[in-house]
Amino acid sequence: MNHHQAITDGPGLRLARPTPVRITEICPRDGFQNIKAFIPTAVKIAIIDRLIAAGARTLEITSMVSPKAIPQMADAADIIDHVSSHHPQVTPVVLVPNLKGAQRAHRQGIRHVSYVVSVSPAHNRANINRTHDESLADLAAIVAEFPDIQVVLTLATAFGCPFIGATSTAVMLSLIDAAVKMGIRGITLCDAIGVANPLQTERVLQAIRAAFPALDIGMHMHNTHGMALANMLVGLALGITRFETANGGLGGCPFAPGAAGNIATEDAVNMFQRMGYQTGYDLGRLIESAKTIQRHIEPNLTGSLVRSRDYREFDFIG
Question: Chain centroid to CA 235: how far?
Answer without folding.
Answer: 14
